[in-house]
Amino acid sequence: MWQRSPPWSGWWPLAEDAAAPRTHSRHLPDALGRRYLLEFDTAELASRRADVLVIGSGMAGLTAALGAAANGRSVHLVTKGRISETNTWYAQGGIAGAVGEADSVELHLADTLVVGQGLCEEDVVRAVVGEAGEALRDLVRLGVEFDRVESGAVDLHREGGHSLPRVLHTGDATGAEIQNKLSGAVKRAERVEVFEERFLVDLLTAGERCVGALIYDPATHDLEAFWAGSIVLATGGAGQMYRITTNPLLATGDGVAAAWRAGAEVSDLEFVQFHPTAFDSAASPKFLITEALRGEGAYLLDCDEKRFMLGVHELAELAPRDVVTREIEKVIARCGRPNVWLDARHLGAEHLRLHFPTVWETCLEAGIDISKDLIPVAPAAHYMIGGVRIDLDGRTSVPGLYASGECSCSGLHGANRLASNSLLEGLVFSRRIVRALETDAQPVPPARVVSPPSDDSVLYTLPMALGNLQSVMSQFVGVNRSEGSLEEAATMLGEMAAVLDVSLTRPAELELQNLVTLAILLTHAAWYRTESRGCHSRTDYPLRDDEHWRVRTVWRRGASPRREAITGRTDAWAAGERP
Ligand SMILES: Cc1cc2nc3c(=O)[nH]c(=O)nc-3n(C[C@H](O)[C@H](O)[C@H](O)COP(=O)(O)OP(=O)(O)OC[C@H]3O[C@@H](n4cnc5c(N)ncnc54)[C@H](O)[C@@H]3O)c2cc1C
Q: Is 14's pLDDT higher than 50?
């Protein structure tokens, strides 16, 4: 009864597992079995060596680079744009940490677990929220300036799902402040060599071990082998899979796709967080209207200008993001408009201009005075919860390869991310990786890697393919999914993957390959999980199924998907209760 597919693409239904829930049994397309995107022989390439190779220059990458260099390691930091072109730079609301007088690690833990709907790993949450205070103090020591109240204490905002104000911020441009200070520190660091505008194509493996990366220089068209004893992946998310997203163009999931090809486990890809309140304008990416504005008292209104979150959730507009997003989608369908309204008029011009200068200015440029006008908002793809599976110290399943930040999946967020926990995750995990390197670190290996040959067949033009991909994902694998929509998406994406199975060298073409890879994995993961939970909403399985699905889903190239039990006392949290 087992049907074998080619060894590198095959995975099979779990039908012989008596405890298995009903799920789907489609094979992944053959193209996802590919090991390397390009043909190469490292013996013919220029090469560089460092103790540690860090890929990505956001919160996660910069923290890892600074920490490893401070411990005396030589570090190469590679990033595909300029050093400050990151998702981190765009973060507005801030970074969560239980530093307020009324707050505690236990409360932050409880909020994270409740919002995560029974899928958070409790030991991971405890480690991250427990280390927040110390990590944030170190950020301040590096020069990051958070807003303060008159007494000198940090000013804390409240955001969705938090039971009290807990978010440290710098106006509404916290990410830019953190990015600028960390980028400056890295540029000054003696042992860090920064390579801007270099593109990670693939991770190099020798035997089981990751030994470096294949890096492309678009300016010279050169491929180089960057060898390292330890490789830290910090390449961020993949919002560009969707037509409407808050993520900048760089968010194409390159690191996760490269790790997949290298044989690393990826998990929880079905969980994509849509932010409920992106500014509904023609711009792309969509400008985010920070949740902190709702935290300050802004309301959500429907087409009759009535508040619709009252009665839906006890926290009304500050309910967790998945709840608000789904409700907005319902209102949009009922009203037949592309957006709902955010009303901040009662907060007053002076307060708004002072506390939300970026939102104020951006809306004003679009002709909206937020002290007088309603703000049009709609959900947009925002954050990838799934990613390369890591342990408590950021180790992936491939020896020598670590991951941190949005490209990783630690189990912190469960089925739904608590607002402002993602910058914190990158910060804390990169610190943990730096500590782990002290015991794990290996010498830079002497190695030669030769890729197997591949067939070439380019049929798509790039803009058409990217537009198609985004349309398929937005229409069939968006906020709400069903078996029918997922099957349709899987078929279309599979066809795209087949014709894109090529040797392409321009970064945009490589990004497209990576986006298709991730889109297929996400679609199959969403199809596989036959329940609704957190930000995974199946219209054909509208209920949460704790009996079968209080598990994380783990996928690896060439293997069947695996369901893995959650660690910790999850029962009470899964029920949404605060023990
Ligand atoms: C508009 C917006 C607002 C947000 N607000 C908040 C907030 O208030 N609080 C919060 O906690 N989170 C927020 N988030 C989420 C948060 O910003 C991200 O999850 C976090 O910054 C990710 O950090 P990172 O270091 O993992 O990745 P990033 O900051 O995205 O950095 C990724 C890096 O990898 C590099 N890279 C990618 N691919 C390649 C490649 N192929 N080769 C070489 N380099 C590569 C990129 O160039 C970049 O340097 C927000 C996100 C957005 C988009």
A: no
Which of the following CATH numbers is that of domain 455-543: 3.40.50.300, 3.30.70.1790, 1.20.58.100, 3.30.70.120? 1.20.58.100
Architecture of the structural domain at 42-271+385-440: 3-Layer(bba) Sandwich (3.50)
What is the position in ligand 1's atom list of the atom closest to the CA of 88? 21
For the residues of 224-255, what is the DSSP string, one character each?
A: EEEEEEEEEE-----GGGSSSBSS-TT-S-HH
Residue located nearest, by CA, to atom 53 of ligand 1: 247
Report the pocket of ligand 1 as residue ranges, CB < 6 Å. Answer: 55-61, 78-81, 85-88, 90-95, 174-175, 199-200, 234-236, 246-247, 250, 254-255, 288, 383, 405-407, 420, 422-423, 426
134, with CB counted inside 10 A (0-12, 13-18, 19+), is exposed
The residue contributing the CA closest to ligand 1 atom 33 is: 56
pTM: 0.92
Q: How many CA within 13 A on the CB side of residue 565? A: 7
Q: Where are the domains of the chain?
A: 42-271+385-440, 276-381, 455-543
Among 3.40.640.10, 3.90.700.10, 3.30.450.20, 3.10.450.50, what is the CATH number of 276-381?
Answer: 3.90.700.10
Q: Dihedral (C-alpha) 437, 441, 446, 448: value to the nearest 10 degrees?
A: -50
Which candidate in 321, 326, 389, 550 is catalytic? Answer: 321
Q: 183 C-alpha to center of ligand 1: Å?
A: 14
Q: Is the pLDDT of residue 554 over 90?
A: yes
Say if residue 454's pLDDT is above 70: no
pLDDT value of residue 254 = 98
Q: Is 158 an active-site residue?
A: no
